[in-house]
Input
Amino acid sequence: MPRAVRERQMMDAAVQTFGQRGYRAASMDEIAELAGVSKPLVYLYLNSKDELFTACIRREAQALLAAVRGGVEPGLPADRQLWEGLRAFFTHTAENPDGWAVLYRQARTHGEPFATEVNVMREEIVAFVTGLIGAAAREAHHDPALPDRDVAGLAQALVGAAEALAGWANETPGVSAREAAATLMNFSWAGLENLMNGRPWQAPSP
Output
């Protein structure tokens, strides 16, 4: 069997084991058995448990980023672009629950260097969403001076909400990716649309 195929099998087994058992509880013996290989072969290909876990984080992060970027068609209206991006996000996390568990739960709770790997992915998603929101808002009300900080804050809030909602959707029977995306659109779009039309909410005076 080609090395790339064998390595992918081991990575698939590792993601499933880490996602379902957790990083600390997962063992290299379990991963090797699930992949149908010997434990020495896992070490030969993927070195230590830490390095294997890091490789899983990177692979799942790259797959999620590719799914979100690939789901957005340039040239669509702003709401359609956001909708397609959210739908791609929730579809991917629903179809890859173990990968999402590795990224959202396991990597963040076991310190460095794992948390840094996830933060790199998250910042790329935030930057992508910031670009979508910022370009649409500036074009909508012809204000090239719209503060970058305002747009970046909205993107951070939206991505944080999407992460939490994906975790809930994956654990709640009957919640589809489309329903999760629609929930977040209904929650966020009214405020985003007002921003894009130059009608931001004004905080009351102290």
